[in-house]
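Re: [ENG-882] Designed sequences occasionally contain unexpected residues at chain ends

Forwarding the minimal case from QA. Structure tokens:
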């Protein structure tokens, strides 16, 4: 359910900022295309990780908010982020050479 490059970045953005509009999410998740963002948001909504609220405005306004289930991922994402920072030197040095 959380596989891929973008889902963690989207969830992390919503954890940091709360409710965001589509364009704000697009700006915050660096490198994602609008098409990919739409796809990932639909999948996260279908799995109950976030909710989508559309407003009848011109132009249409759509906001995304994490559900309780989505917010419960906060400690997990924080732990992964901390692990990445602690092991940044090892990770960025490339593959470990085997002695076999």
């Amino acid at each position: 359910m959380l596989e891929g490059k973008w889902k963690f970045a989207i969830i992390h953005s919503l954890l940091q900022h709360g409710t965001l509009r589509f364009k704000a999410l697009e700006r915050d998740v660096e490198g994602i295309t609008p098409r990919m963002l739409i796809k990932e948001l639909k999948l996260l909504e279908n799995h109950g990780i976030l909710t989508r609220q559309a407003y009848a405005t011109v132009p249409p306004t759509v906001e995304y908010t994490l559900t309780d289930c989505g917010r419960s991922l906060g400690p997990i994402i924080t732990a992964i982020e901390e692990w990445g920072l602690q092991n940044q030197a090892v990770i960025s040095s490339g593959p470990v050479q085997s002695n076999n």
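QA comment: On inspection the terminal residues look reasonable. The longest strand covers residues 50-55. Proposing we downgrade this to a documentation issue.
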